[in-house]
Write a structure and sequence with these properties.
Blueprint: E1 5-14, E2 18-21, H1 22-25, H2 33-39, E3 44-47, H3 55-70, E4 79-83, H4 94-102, E5 108-112, H5 118-131, E6 138-145, E7 163-173, E8 178-186, E9 194-196, H6 207-211, E10 217-219, H7 221-242, E11 252-255, H8 260-270, H9 281-284, H10 291-298, E12 308-315, E13 319-326
Parallel strand pairs: 4-5, 4-6, 11-12
Antiparallel strand pairs: 1-7, 2-3, 6-7, 8-13, 9-10, 12-13
Helix pairs in contact: 3-4, 7-8
Bound molecules: oxa(dethia)-CoA (UT7).
């Protein structure tokens, strides 16, 4: 009997309207458009404005559109998993709130936190549920309101991040398409270089933690940069080697969008051209769990059935890895 695989059969993204560009950032911290473009490659990022709106607002909008687009009723969904580092609240899971907002009632749902690798790790978890044969329609989401934990007085981190969500539908297939392989790793020592100091059980919120600005992202940028370049590139090259994919046989690399220089270095190590790489960092910045599905969504109508695609990520934890998928449908249709 042929192996059941999970295939992405639909994708949808959602971004807030407000655009925070580099010129506006330069009125908030001591920076310039030139520095940000040269060192990071981001022109603007979207910011979710509005009282009471968090990651579930964006995730629910992405899922609503996905259900409409794929002609799927909420009742058909068996499982919904949401990757995020900016949940609406510590508990309950943002996935449960999204399920409620879109009317999913015959399913169970939960969140996964693997920082910028969250979408990839979550996609693989969804894949395993489908491979079990017991689940037919699984939704995987990446939703992050990074503006909620970004310190807009810290010029070394505030240009990097933006808000967005994107969701995919996973369904079983017996064809030679879908999620083929994954290679993932973590190194918990990375927690000292990229983290949020307070707000968890080790340092619950107090007046002192708030005064010390400990509820924002803290990053040792240079160390993260070094690890991101070597690990994202290594794991993408390993995946190509394992599956004997030559550079010209790769339709697309979909890298996590953290820094243009990291993306370019990864593509160079893989021996592929820039035209084979999905890049939208200029317009959205680093949206953490949403970067990879947001790219797939924007490029959907250029994707063809059977396309070889490598997804690659690196993020807080540290977490990193690559996935090899064969696209399952012609995006134009
Ligand atoms: O999603 C995964 C996690 N994140 C990442 O992958 C991010 C990885 N790291 C990076 O992308 C880069 O390290 C940054 C973009 C964060 C920083 O770039 P860098 O080339 O490593 O700069 P740097 O931290 O070495 O700073 C160089 C200089 C410093 O000035 P001095 O000390 O040389 O006088 C900084 O203070 O640039 C200064 N600087 C800025 N100047 C203008 C730092 N941020 C800014 C800024 N505008 N926004």
């Amino acid at each position: 009997m042929k192996k059941i695989r999970a295939a992405i059969t639909g994708i949808n993204g959602w971004v807030p309207e407000y655009r925070l560009n580099n010129d506006e950032l330069a009125t908030m911290v001591d920076t310039t458009d030139e520095w940000i473009m040269q060192r990071i490659g981001i022109k603007e990022r979207r910011i979710l404005k509005g009282e009471g709106l968090g990651s579930s607002h964006m995730g629910a909008n992405a899922v609503k559109g996905l259900l409409e687009k794929t002609g799927t009723s909420p009742d058909e969904i068996d499982l919904l998993i949401n990757a995020t580092v900016t949940p609406d609240m510590l508990f309950p899971a943002t996935a449960n709130i999204i399920s409620d907002k879109v009317g999913i009632k015959n399913a169970f749902s939960f969140d996964i936190n693997a920082a910028c690798s969250g979408f990839l790790f979550t996609l693989e978890v969804g894949n395993k549920f489908i491979e079990s044969g017991q689940y037919k329609k699984v939704i995987i989401i990446g939703s992050d309101k990074m503006s909620a934990i970004t310190d807009y007085t810290d010029r070394t981190t505030c240009p990097l991040f933006g808000d967005a969500a994107a969701a995919v539908l996973l369904e079983p297939t017996n064809e030679d398409v879908g999620i083929i392989d994954h290679m993932f790793r973590v190194d918990g020592l990375g927690r000292h270089h990229l983290f949020q100091k307070a707000g968890g059980s080790v340092r619950p919120p107090t007046h002192e933690t708030i005064d010390a600005r400990e509820h924002f992202i803290h990053q040792d940028g240079k160390t993260v940069f070094k690890f991101a370049v070597s690990n994202m590139a290594d794991y993408s090259v390993k995946m190509m080697t394992k599956h004997n994919i030559k550079p010209e046989e790769l339709a697309w690399l979909v890298p996590h969008q953290a820094n243009m220089r990291i993306i370019e270095a990864t593509a160079k190590r893989m021996g592929i051209k820039k035209e084979q790489v999905m890049i939208n960092i200029q317009r959205y910045g680093n949206t953490t769990t949403a970067t990879i599905p947001l790219c797939l969504w924007e490029w959907e109508n250029k994707l063809n059935k059977g396309d070889n695609i490598i997804l690659a990520a690196f993020g807080g934890g540290f977490t990193w890895g690559s996935m090899y998928i064969k696209w399952a449908y012609n995006g134009k249709s």
